[in-house]
Specification:
single chain, mainly alpha, 3 helices, 0% strand, globular
Length: 60
Amino acid sequence: MTETQREELKEYLETILELYTEDEYEEFVEDIVYHYCERKFGSKKEESIKTFYEILEEIS
């Protein structure tokens, strides 16, 4: 994922994470992130989820 794509995902996540608790990340947010990244960037699920947790660490 490019730096521009990561920044776009980070902005998207800031909105999404307000709607869910940490307990719901695996159940709901991972799928939301995966589908968003697949649609916007053509990313695979593994890459999308990995990037999600990397960004989550950055903003936490």
